[in-house]
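Subject: mismatched residue count in predicted assembly?

I count 856 residues in my input, but I want to confirm that the predicted structure covers every chain. Input:
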Amino acid sequence: MPDARFQPLPGFRDFAPQECAARNYLFDAWKRVARRYGFVEWEGPTIESTELYLKKSGGELPTQLFRFKDQGERDITVRPELTASLGRIAAAYQREYTKPLKWFEIGSCFRYEKPQKGRLREFYQFNADILGESEAGADAELIALAIDCMRELGFREGDFIVRLSDREVWLGYAAKHGIPEDRTGDFLAIVDKFERDRPEECQRKLDAFGMRREDLVAFIENPPADCSPRYSEVLAELDARGLAGYVKLDLSVVRGLAYYTGLVFEIFDSGRSLRAIAGGGRYNTLVKALSDGAADMPATGFALGDAVISHLIEQCPHAKALRDAALQPNTCDIYLALADPAQRPALLGLASALRDQGYRVDLALSPAKLGNQLKRAEKQGARYAVVVGEEYPQLELKNLSARTSATVGIDELFAALANDPEEETISE
Amino acid sequence: MPDARFQPLPGFRDFAPQECAARNYLFDAWKRVARRYGFVEWEGPTIESTELYLKKSGGELPTQLFRFKDQGERDITVRPELTASLGRIAAAYQREYTKPLKWFEIGSCFRYEKPQKGRLREFYQFNADILGESEAGADAELIALAIDCMRELGFREGDFIVRLSDREVWLGYAAKHGIPEDRTGDFLAIVDKFERDRPEECQRKLDAFGMRREDLVAFIENPPADCSPRYSEVLAELDARGLAGYVKLDLSVVRGLAYYTGLVFEIFDSGRSLRAIAGGGRYNTLVKALSDGAADMPATGFALGDAVISHLIEQCPHAKALRDAALQPNTCDIYLALADPAQRPALLGLASALRDQGYRVDLALSPAKLGNQLKRAEKQGARYAVVVGEEYPQLELKNLSARTSATVGIDELFAALANDPEEETISE
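Triage response: the counts match. Full output below for your records.
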């Protein structure tokens, strides 16, 4: 346990090397999957003009922003999310890339919220977005990517569920029930809170529209067949990919944010013991709004945070086993141990030569007993220790996992390393 | 060129995919080298209590901080550098790691400065530090790492120079010239500004110590032999590593910051056309100060920014050629092209199977002409296109670089891909 006297600010985290390796395990998995799907990485600035977020949210800003005046009196915000920057940058660069754009990003976001399980003031988000393609193929590609980001971490069918919904269905429902267009947003907000509000509270809100909660319950529990053509198309595409078992239609999902325009989804652990793991959907009008009409691209995207999923890994034995195996300490391929201080220059030259070949090499930086050096080698998970002593240029090559030892010359050392059948694991 | 209407804030940058790939090229190189040296990655929070930076700088804070009051009235700062967090985190976690700690970090830093070439308001720093080892071997290991971070990017001897200095030499000089200890800092500040101040300005400052500028010039230009035993030791270690040609003793380097305690260094392009590329040195008392005495670790470290080095790559033909070759667009291994719309489910199933094997696969998300699909395949640098048509499960496998084509079954497809002699380049 870290010394409690040296804490970061509340809601912020320190990543000492072990924690950083666990973080990188997530990042590496998401990057691998995104690249397999043909997505390319982008990154925006950590701080943007607050105006950009005002444009995105249509004038109503959330209250949890890290929003400040900078030394030049600019109204700036440390980014709470990535989609506003994405829209701005996509508008700026759209002419340089063939559409559809398949872009991903992993970066820190900041929200001044009450820190609690799965909710932090600085957290990482993996964002993936497809811009410039309005067809269901793009929604399916994106949802498949989200599912594979989970599968890559060892989660299986049954561990989590993608709850798919379609705001178009609710817009049709609202129209059919005579809700005027300018009040549709208020109605969607009721549906959005449907699961969280107490029934009487929900009914009180519905009274304004002359609606009964039980009708909504019935509609959500038994949605009309083919109520969402888009959902049916996406389901067929996911089925062809072998991924239909990961999704279900769940019209109670609306996604609070005003800018979503069609298919939306959220990923939850099957036991619903945690907050949403990921969320996203179509936002066909946002890029146009962010660019004041200069760029008009239909879009679909999602964000997956690092905090909730880390809790889920702890809860899920096969995901945890996969991660723990990946985090075995192995920060060194070859440890160079010095048995004769006079040979330190030879050892250093050897270190450079091995590192130039891509091997991860460590060595004692000050005089140390041979036994202690070899202990450090084991601690770092080194595959080999090479002892440089007075017999140099003869060396002792110890295979620490096989517990074998041999006397070799320098050329033989390089040959032995190059011919190691597990070679791939010991260099980059 | 990006559309100028959609700029980030001044001094901040957008990384559209091409720019992000260039950024990642730097990050990947530094991470590779750090790992070869047995360094492990850590990360601190982007925002810290301002008090931490006050502790570090001994009460005098720089004026360019992004320093604010948060919603809970805390005095917070968006980090201007990484060493303060490192000291705090190392103090918190020191019992969990065997010393010496060899830690590296790559992260954004923020300074409210006038944006200009090589100087931004948000920039990346690669930081590497060795904590818990006071011997010269640690300084040499760290400087060798810095040199190899440059070599990995294609820079050669003669492209850049590590200017090594030793503050102990100046402390001895100050003592010898009767400067009282409490004024040594003022004296070091004069030496620090020696190259930038006009000679008369420098002399005016030296008057306070009854010193003549020409004596300083003579001392810097012809330092006494073995004036710095630490420098001699480090040079011998670098020589044994084959890296002595990259360094020179240059006592005009002092490093402004008060916390440096011994050997310091800066890396410059040989033509001195740019600002410093990197800087660092020993800070043996800082961790103790940051932890109010709880952790006392000698330390040495350096920071290397991404902005100046990017300019240097542009100036240096062999470094630029290496980078440009690494940035060839190749975001896809296999492009799946659809010749018969009825076969889309087959194509999607194939995409999943190939992606599950680690291949980077792309496909059209909505109906498109075969010719356009194949154009997109080429644009993404795909090695193969696989055409799925009415002959499915027979497929047409096109090798886009070799410009060959063959009809294959599904099993043959996987076999052909697995046996590709350039296989390593087409999967992860």
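Residues 17-36 of chain A form the longest helix (20 residues). Marking this ticket as 'not a bug'.
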